[in-house]
Amino acid sequence: MAHNPSVLAQVWLLLKQVDYESVYTVSKRWFLFVPTVIFPATFFYDAPFGRFSTPGSLLALDGIRSWIFMELISPMSFLLTAFLHPFSRTPLSVLSPQALLTALYLTHYVNRAVLSPLRTPSRAPSHPAVVVSAIFFNGPNGFLLAAYLTSTAAATFLANAYTHPRFWLGLILWAVGFAGNIIHDEILLNIRRKAKAKGKAKEKSQGEHYSIPHGLLYKYISYPNYFCEWVEWLGFALAASPLPDVGLLPAASTVLTALSAGSVSAVGGLFTLFADSVAPPWAFLAAEVLLMLPRAVRGHRWYLQRFGEAYPSGRRIVVPFLF
Predict the structure, then answer these.
(1) Does 250 reside within a domain?
(2) Does residue 272 form part of some domain?
(3) By residue range, what is the domain housing residue 272?
(4) Where are the alpha helices (DSSP H) in the chain?
(5) In the chain, how many domains are there?
(6) Which pTM was predicted?
(7) CA atoms within a 13 Å half-sphere pointing along the CA-CB vector of 302
(8) pLDDT tens per residue, range 6-58
(9) Taking a C-beta distance cutoff of 8 angstroms, is the pair 280, 240 a contact?
(10) Assigned domain for 253 exists
(11) Which has fewest Cβ within 10 Å: 17, 73, 131, 139?
(12) Buried b / exposed e across 158-191, counting CB within 10 Å, b at 16+?
């Protein structure tokens, strides 16, 4: 009688046969290309979640459950890829810099995907489009970061990381950004907790749980949680990978010539060498800034419209003293 392999064994066999080099290259290019292309449009569109949600919609999803689901995609993708370690014959050493960076990444997502939503007293409904978009972002991101950290390229770059000041500077920035992100999120959560305790939760009065946040970096900017998250991933990228080679960027005149010819593929091709030189940690940071900056701008405008003269006039949007 022939032995039939289990479903898991068949899936594992298929995973081992994937051309990960091609998947990695294409995923990284698109991860850089898509946020760059949609960046201008997102200044005019409010993704339907958070303060811009549409709770009356028939498609509205539970805010907390949908958040947990879509954010868990990234660490799940990361762990699967790390287990496969497609660009290295051996798994990570427990004491290696790559393993430490892996721990930092997973720590972030334990907080973001599990602890943060579970300590949230309420969260506005989300739209299925937001969940789908997040899955298409988080899945490739987890894959790219794990594929890089388990690669021989990362092992070479991080060979002497524990004796390199840049590595420790990156870790310090990561820790400061991570702590700052949690602390400023807690300020927002406390607003909701106090509102709920006073009977002003969103179930009773739409939007009343939104108030002007104060304290720490909220003195200077409307979105310190965004800013701190950027600092966190800047530190991670600085510690984990070489700087992108800006010398590979095409000349402006060359780009303008391609644009005038109306060839989108030609324009994209001009940036291929640069995109291929960008390590996934830097690609992640760039994508975060490109996707979050427009939302911060529109959110700041929302604060001004909602609270008018009561909103601190000198408060910037997302970068203290600058923007």
Answers:
(1) yes
(2) yes
(3) 245-278
(4) 7-16, 20-38, 63-84, 97-110, 116-118, 128-149, 152-157, 165-197, 224-240, 252-260, 264-270, 272-277, 280-307
(5) 1
(6) 0.89
(7) 20
(8) 787 777 778 778 888 999 999 999 989 999 888 888 888 776 665 665 666 66
(9) no
(10) yes
(11) 17
(12) beebeeeeebeebbebbeebbebbbebbebbbeb
